[in-house]
Structure formats: structure tokens, C-alpha cells
Amino acid sequence: MVVKSKRGRRRYIAFTVSEGLTKESLAGKLAAFAGENPPKVIQCAEGWCILRCSPQERDRTVELMSAADPESKSLRTSGTLITLRRRYPRLMETRPPSRRKGRA
């Protein structure tokens, strides 16, 4: 596990977005608006989305998301993905499969 002092802290922001928005199209839009160092799209499906950014870039990330998808609405910011997914069950249901070996 990478130490936070090396990697830095992260924030995860849950959004409601347009129904037809995909992870790939959202990542492209954010890259176009942000230029260098866009926020990371963790998941995006069925009108819900999670973006990852640093704590200092939180406000900028919300502004970028508003520019990329005017229908988007920021719901909550958390330091962990599991907190957001527990609070919003639709995010838990639509999460991508785990990339870790030996996990289901």
C-alpha cells in the first residue's frame, strides 16, 4: 500500500449526470476543459458518476464537471469510495468489477 505522505490525499465526488453519459465520453470532455491534469473518472453509468481529485482541486473539479455536463449535480465529497457507495446504493450497483486479483 502506498503511503499517503507520498501519494497525497484524495477526494471522491459523487455526481448525478445525464443518463447517456459514459465513462469514456466524460473523460474526454473533462480532458478538453481541464487541459493538463484532468480529474480521474472512477465510474460513470446510468446517470451517476464518481470523480477523483486532490482536496485542493475539489472546487475546480465541480466547476469542470458543470462545464462538461450542465445537467450534473454534485451530491457529496468523501475521502473513500466505500462511503459514497454505501450512501448511494445505485453507485454500489453500477460499480465496475474489481481489478484486484483474487477478488470477486
Descriptive report:
The chain is of the alpha+beta class and 104 residues long. Helix content is 38%, strand content 23%. The chain contains five helices and four strands; from the N terminus they run H-E-H-E-E-H-E-H-H. The chain has a four-stranded antiparallel beta sheet with strand order 2-3-1-4, with helices on both faces. A hairpin with a 2-residue loop joins strand 2 and strand 3. Helix 2 crosses helix 3. The longest helix is centred in the first third of the chain and has 12 residues.
Keywords:
single chain, 5 helices, 104 residues, alpha+beta, 23% strand, four-stranded antiparallel β-sheet, 38% helix
Please identify the structural class as seen in this structure. alpha+beta
Helix content: 25-40%
Can you write the helix and strand succession as a string? HEHEEHEHH
Outline the biggest β-sheet.
Answer: 4 strands, antiparallel
Q: What Rg do the Cα atoms give? A: 14 Å
Sum this structure up briefly.
The chain is of the alpha+beta class and 104 residues long.
SSE blueprint:
Blueprint: H1 4-7, E1 11-16, H2 23-34, E2 40-45, E3 48-53, H3 58-68, E4 73-78, H4 81-87, H5 89-93
Antiparallel strand pairs: 1-3, 1-4, 2-3
